[in-house]
Specification:
The structure is a single chain. This protein is α/β, with parallel strands linked by helices. The chain contains 18 helices and 16 strands.
Length: 450
């Protein structure tokens, strides 16, 4: 409270200290800038007339402006013994939140201050939300914030994303497992005109043939045994936004035909319904398979490929961008050290050299898991080569991967890698080679971080 009358200040302090954590009183208004520089206040009670200006209120308005210029969110209540309606209206117009006449009624003053404190709390909450929104927008708008790298091959990917994102062209992302295909799909969406709408991701390899139409196109209540309610499919959910179909190479010819029909007509019909629903989606697909070779052996439709690959983006394997390993490793290290509250803050040169010599059949996902494991197991500030001992049991040789490690999990992991390598990433053929169903192979890929 700022007032040139010491008796008023003392009376106010005696009243308010019973209801406040702290009450600051000041006789000289010229100290207001100092007070604002050194602390923040829930409420400021400001007299309008000081010794040089007895009744006009000019000094009060002057200091009101000074306070609000210094702190636009300041909550100021003006107090005077010479007020009228016109002055009260002017006070509110110029930024005060209330106007109190002397001598005040204690209950009324306390009620006014209580309301002012609630207003200040709301200002703080709005400011907090505003800063959180700004921070979130800054993170979202940071170019390729989740795709780490400076190699020429990844810069070429950035360039393609920039060129295609603002268009509505369908995009096909090609690359081995673990190269970051979904990150690229999300980057395309975030930089597109559809960024304020939904991004819907679908793992085509994990959807069984019997559930394909229900998952993608939706169903009506009672259309089949477990259809207990109407349900929109992924196409409807992505309407106005981006639909990402991952592992599209795993679809059989029958499902490819159904998908092509929807893409051509830009309409979906829920199972059990006769009504078609228009869809407006931006399609992004991804696969680790060679779709052009699959066309030659009639396992993928050429017309579907033409529909989904207006633009192709090929992601390099990690072994093709080894110079990015230090950046990627540091990125994952910072994330996992924070997540697990571990001291590790650096990776030694020797360890980085070892990481760059490794073949990384599981690509970035394998590197990520390697860093996570090392962070969890290490108690040191610096991760060193011994922290990555689990990578030394494997080496790349002509004809496939061999292992000096007899651990059953590692043997299974290496065998799966070899089968996938032999069949050029074709999950169905690799599963047949291994005597597994495709779903079983996917579970093992997830288990081993491949």
């Amino acid at each position: 409270m700022i007032d040139d009358d010491e008796d008023v200040l003392l009376a106010a302090k005696l009243l308010l200290k019973k209801h406040s954590h702290q009450v600051i009183i000041e006789k000289n208004p010229k100290k207001i800038p100092f007070l604002l520089n050194n602390d923040t206040y829930d409420v400021i009670l400001l007299d309008m007339n000081f010794s040089k200006d007895i009744t006009s209120g000019k000094e009060g308005f002057y200091w009101l402006h000074q306070i609000l210029e210094k702190d636009p969110s300041a909550v100021v209540i003006l107090i005077t013994a010479f007020g009228d309606v016109e002055m009260a209206v002017r006070a509110l117009k110029e930024g005060a939140i209330d106007f109190v006449l002397k001598p005040w009624q204690n209950e009324k003053l306390l009620a006014t201050i209580s309301t002012a404190i609630k207003l200040k709390e709301s200002y703080r909450e709005v400011d907090k939300l505003k800063k959180a929104k700004e921070q979130l927008e800054a993170e979202i708008n940071q170019p390729f914030k989740d795709i780490v790298g400076q190699s020429s091959s990844i810069k070429e990917v950035f360039s393609l994303i920039d060129k295609v994102a603002a268009t509505d062209a369908n995009v096909l992302i090609l690359g081995e497992n673990g190269t970051g295909k979904e990150l690229v799909a999300r980057a395309i969406h975030q930089r597109s005109l559809r960024k304020d709408n939904t991004f819907v991701s679908v793992d085509m390899g994990a959807i069984t043939e019997s559930l394909f139409e229900s998952e993608l196109f939706g169903h009506t209540k009672g259309s089949f045994t477990d259809a207990r309610e109407d349900r929109a499919g992924r196409f409807e959910l992505a309407n106005g936004g981006t639909l990402f179909l991952d592992e599209i190479g795993n679809l059989n010819s029958s499902l490819q035909s159904k998908l092509l029909t929807v893409l051509q007509n830009r309409q979906v019909t829920r199972i059990g319904s006769n009504e078609s629903v228009d869809t407006d989606i931006r399609l992004v697909c991804a696969t680790n398979m060679d779709l052009h070779n699959m066309i030659e052996d009639n396992s993928f439709r050429q017309d579907l490929l033409y529909r989904i690959n207006t633009v192709e983006i090929r992601l390099p394997a990690l072994r093709e961008r080894l110079e990015d390993i230090p950046l990627l490793a540091s990125h994952f290290l910072a994330n996992y050290a924070k997540k697990y509250r571990k001291p590790a803050s650096k990776i030694s040169k020797e360890a980085l050299s070892s990481l760059q010599k490794y073949d990384w059949p599981g690509n970035i996902r394998e590197l990520q898991h390697a860093i996570e494991r090392a962070v969890i197991m290490s108690e040191n500030n610096v991760l060193d080569s011994p922290d990555f001992f689990f990578l030394k049991g494997e080496r790349t040789v002509e004809g496939g991967l061999v292992s000096d490690n007899l651990n059953l999990d590692e043997v299974e992991k290496n065998t799966i890698k070899k089968a996938i390598s032999i069949h050029a990433g074709n999950i169905s053929k690799a599963a047949d080679e291994l005597g597994l169903t495709r779903a079983s192979l996917y579970r093992r890929l997830e288990k081993h971080g491949l």
